[in-house]
Amino acid sequence: MHNKILRLGFLQLYPERHRASWKGREVSLTLREYEIVAHLARQPGQDLQYRCIYDVVRGSGFAAGIGAEGYQVNVRAFIKRIRRKFRDIDPKFDAIENYPRFGYRWRCIDDLVD
What we know:
Elements: E1 6-8, E2 11-14, E3 19-22, E4 25-27, H1 31-41, E5 48-49, H2 50-58, H3 71-89, E6 96-99, E7 103-106
Antiparallel strand pairs: 1-2, 2-3, 3-4, 5-7, 6-7
């Protein structure tokens, strides 16, 4: 079995196992949380819309929540849980930035300083 590891600054992704580590410690992400982190981190500095992030975990066009943009609440809940899990390891974790009313982005690797 080939053990491919994707290193992005302090983040390491293990795609074959759907696992992630931050600063050498495993982050206990669910499969969906892992997919969100991997999607954001593979495009550092790029703003990704709420819909794009939600499509990663539910598939294109899946309707959820109340109203046409109800999925945004679900994305915010995912991001909140993800941040909490990273902050359990690193209280200063700030790699996921919010672009208000648009979505989120993973900070550029050059911006992540220990």
